[in-house]
Amino acid sequence: MELVAGYPYWLIKSGLPYQYPKLTENKRCSVAIVGGGISGALAAYCCTRAGMECILVDGRTIGLGSTCASTSLLQYELDVPLHKLKKTVGSRHAIRAYQVCAEAIDKLLALMKELDFKEYSKKQSLFFSRHKAEMESMQEEYLARKEAGFDVQLLSSTEIKKEYGLNATCGILSNKAASNNAYLFTHTLLQHCLTKGFQVFDRTKVRIVKGKNNDQILQTDEGFLIQCKHVINASGYEVINFIGNKIVNLDCTYAVISESMTTGSMWKDDIIMWNTDDPYLYLCTTPDHRIMMGGRDEPFVNMKTMHRYVDKKTHLLEKDFRKCFPSLSFKKEFAWSGVFGKTKDALPYIGSHPDTPGISYALGFGGNGITFSMVAAEIIADLLGGKKNGDAEIFSFAR
């Protein structure tokens, strides 16, 4: 399944930093990971750290699925506001889902520091609305986050305009967020794991996964076998090839990035911004002084449609930007689209599925897929290592 259209910025910026071999013989291991994006890389790191013998395979060149098209924002906010999520999944699970994502940001920052990975920045995040009708909902969301222990401020239209030059009616400023280069970080994680005896094979598509006695057998397109005790499926939106499209609605999301414009900040503190609109808009800056923005999602129909809409959606995103920042100029350099998935309750799916025993799923669906990937990697590593994880039930297929 093709997942990307256009020219993703991170791929252009970082290129192909490392080469990995193709699988050309049968293999045995403890854990086989299917998927070489950020989800698979974090699962590899956590399982390797726990002492498990792992092999990772990907049908593409490493990182060239959804990961290279990611806007690489690290946020704890889900696609559904906390006060609304509480009504859907219950107060305890909703609050804890937000909290584990916040904890995941801290863990990702610590991990990037540990691996001496430089391409990340700590940031604040502003969730804003341009509509007076949303003010009551924003107030309710602010109180829900405040009661859940988050460091947030409710800003008025005047404050937002003064501080950030943004046209908005109100907003919630959060002190925990970050951005990074998820594509290059994926390679950094895998390179670290390789020093621990880990093995990576790309351009190696898995066609068949079946159980045999107490083992799992993966068969590649070219007939080679990987025998293992457990499989981690981190294939993201391509999971529909394994368990069908019963758990996620696929959308196309669009992104555009400006030329490098100045040596200074485009707005105060280079905060991440995203709004309540439908279709939504998010904005952030990059270390090389560009503005990246995205949104304008459409239901996924086929790849021809996704390719055809890139120019149209770019134009609409530029119009959205001008409404928010009439005094700032924006000159596009690259634009792209990626397949994006949403679950009914905005939570990812993590853990085992009743139809596929012996396989764990790390499926970080939603707007903050990178933080979900960190959560999934730790939960699955705990479960495979025989440890209880108190957060597993929140994201299980049985919820």
Tell me briefly what this model is.
This protein is α/β, with parallel strands linked by helices and 399 residues long. 33% of the residues lie in helices and 29% in strands.
Instruction: For the record, give the distance between the C-alpha atoms at the N and C termini, rounded to a whole number.
Output: 28 Å
Oligomer: single chain
Spans with pLDDT under 50 lasting ≥5 residues? none
CATH C-level category of one domain: Alpha Beta
How much of the sequence is in beta strands?
25-35%
Spell out the CATH superfamily of one domain.
Answer: FAD/NAD(P)-binding domain
Using only CA atoms, what is the Rg?
Answer: 21 Å
SS-derived structural category: alpha/beta
Q: Identify the CATH architecture of one domain.
A: 3-Layer(bba) Sandwich
Residues in helix, %: 25-40%
Overall spatial form: globular
In words, what does this structure look like?
With 399 residues, the chain is of the alpha/beta class. Among the domains are: 158 residues, FAD/NAD(P)-binding domain (3-Layer(bba) Sandwich), CATH 3.50.50.60; 94 residues. The strands form 3 sheets. Strands 1, 5, 6, 7, 8, 14, 15, 16, 17 and 18 form a 10-stranded mixed β-sheet that branches. The protein starts with a strand and ends in a 15-residue tail after the last helix.
Main features:
single chain, 399 residues, alpha/beta, FAD/NAD(P)-binding domain, 20 strands
